């Protein structure tokens, strides 16, 4: 019950502060779809930028891709999705609701109305559509259920264009779609989602070494985005539970409020995909090694990251209620007083949608507002994520910024007009200190970069 209450609070905060909205909400919503609001987009983009920086920009062996969502049906036939991408489905004979059989404790009784459940059958999760005006079998296509195949079918194009030497990889961030029988747990299981995936091609003899390399890199990425390391666990997937294409898989699980669930995956796909597409298409997708003069099919290591699951992990990990049971007061100085718990998002500066907020102490004092605007413009022109906030009293502004994870707030007060110093407040500790105007940019930058902690000002 406590975990359910936590998720309810997080979902409420996400909507109230403009992170996540229900898809098609004004029409009653569409299950399994969510819309990212202004702060949600900013947080999600920060996650994707950090991923792209680590896995593409910082490497010389990775090639970026952005393949089409719609692909020929032969792609999904060759990959095994048409014949095997399904979940077990049961339907209630009374209320006609459908459920995933493997998510039910009692596979004979409907969890909604108590009616009798029908026989289990397989349900293909791909969204089927038709390309063009015709609606015959030749026009069938699918909304891709994963981004991986777009890289496999472009393997030869990258070889012919850039002539890379093994090992090398292809990386892509993009949307994928799965017609989930029972979407659930907020952003965790949805029908439309975004993936960050790598297909890293190696010689058959070096897969173990590269597998361990990416195993370490996955952990490094969790540190980049500020996830609590003790909440992440590795699970060696058994032979019976691995995907048909995988010879070895490690799942990286995260302690969500609703339980320990898969966050990322690392799979050794062997040469399954290139072999299947080579046979189905009739194209030669082999690699010729100039050194050994051998031709063979490259093997593949696949680190797979869900953007939405990462977003959810970051959001739930950052959610804090002040242990002191304090809240910002309505006093002008924003000092805490006893009352309801203060809620704040302890986001890493790397992912926080707003890093700095600038306040005039009073919005009806033109001199304070003018000076606050001046400071705001300084940080805005640096390209940083900065907000200007003069709505409500200073205590309410602190509370609002805490709830969206703003790292530092800068208040322009009457002393600022005298000596050009400002009040800087730390989100996590609520400590406030005076900083001189000439040192403000440098010291704020140091805190955001993690060079100095707040107490060092």
UniProtKB/TrEMBL annotation:
GO terms for molecular function: ATP binding; glycine-tRNA ligase activity. It catalyses: tRNA(Gly) + glycine + ATP = glycyl-tRNA(Gly) + AMP + diphosphate. It comes from Candidatus Taylorbacteria bacterium RIFCSPLOWO2_01_FULL_45_15b. Its EC number is 6.1.1.14. This is Glycine--tRNA ligase. InterPro entries: aa-tRNA-synt_IIb (IPR002314), aa-tRNA-synth_II (IPR006195), aa-tRNA-synth_II/BPL/LPL (IPR045864), Anticodon-bd (IPR004154), Anticodon-bd_dom_sf (IPR036621), Gly-tRNA_synthase/POLG2 (IPR027031), Gly_tRNA_ligase_bac (IPR022961), GlyRS-like_core (IPR033731). Residues 8-328 form the Aminoacyl-transfer RNA synthetases class-II family profile domain. ATP binds at residues 178-180, 188-193, 262-263, 306-309. Its main location: cytoplasm. It is found in: Cytoplasm. One of its GO terms (cellular component) is cytoplasm. Signal peptide: none annotated. Belongs to the class-II aminoacyl-tRNA synthetase family. One of its GO terms (biological process) is glycyl-tRNA aminoacylation.
């Amino acid at each position: 019950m406590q975990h359910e209450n936590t998720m309810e609070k997080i979902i409420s905060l996400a909507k109230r502060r403009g992170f996540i909205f229900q898809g098609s909400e004004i029409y009653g919503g569409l299950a399994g779809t969510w819309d990212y609001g202004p702060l949600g987009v900013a947080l999600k983009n920060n996650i994707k930028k950090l991923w792209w920086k680590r896995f593409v920009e910082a490497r010389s062996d990775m090639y970026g891709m952005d393949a089409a969502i719609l692909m020929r049906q032969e792609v999904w036939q060759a990959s095994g999705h048409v014949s095997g991408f399904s979940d077990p489905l049961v339907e209630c004979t009374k209320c006609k609701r459908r459920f995933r059989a493997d998510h039910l404790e009692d596979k004979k009784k409907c969890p909604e109305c108590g009616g009798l459940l029908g026989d289990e059958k397989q349900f293909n999760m791909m969204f089927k559509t038709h390309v063009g005006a015709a609606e015959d079998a030749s026009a069938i296509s699918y909304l891709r259920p994963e981004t991986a195949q777009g890289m496999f079918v472009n393997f030869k194009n990258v070889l012919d264009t850039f002539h890379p030497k093994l090992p090398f990889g292809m990386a892509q961030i993009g949307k994928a779609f799965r017609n989930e029988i029972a979407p659930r747990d907020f952003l965790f299981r949805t029908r439309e989602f975004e993936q960050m995936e790598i297909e890293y091609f190696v010689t058959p003899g070096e897969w173990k070494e590269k597998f361990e390399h990416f195993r370490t890199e996955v952990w490094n990425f969790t540190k980049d985005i500020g996830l609590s390391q003790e909440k992440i666990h590795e699970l060696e997937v058994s032979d019976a539970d691995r995907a048909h294409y995988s010879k070895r898989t490690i799942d990286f699980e995260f302690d969500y409020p609703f339980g320990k669930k898969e966050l990322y995956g690392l799979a050794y796909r062997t040469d399954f995909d290139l072999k299947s597409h080579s046979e189905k298409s009739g194209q030669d997708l082999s690699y010729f090694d100039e050194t050994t003069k051998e031709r063979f099919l490259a093997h593949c290591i696949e680190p797979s990251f869900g953007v939405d699951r990462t977003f959810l992990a970051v959001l739930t990990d950052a959610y804090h209620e002040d242990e002191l049971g304090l809240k910002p007061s309505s006093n002008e100085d924003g000092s805490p007083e006893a009352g309801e718990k203060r809620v704040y998002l302890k986001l890493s500066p790397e992912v926080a949608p707003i890093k700095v907020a600038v306040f005039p102490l009073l919005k009806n004092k033109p001199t304070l507002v003018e000076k606050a605007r001046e400071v705001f413009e300084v940080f805005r022109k640096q390209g940083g994520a900065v907000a200007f906030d003069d709505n409500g009293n200073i205590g309410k502004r602190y509370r609002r910024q805490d709830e969206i994870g703003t790292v530092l707030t800068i208040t322009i007060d009457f002393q600022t007009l005298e000596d050009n110093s400002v009040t800087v407040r730390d989100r996590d500790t609520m400590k406030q200190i005076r900083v001189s105007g000439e040192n403000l940019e440098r010291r704020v930058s140091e805190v955001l970069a993690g060079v100095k902690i707040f107490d060092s000002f």
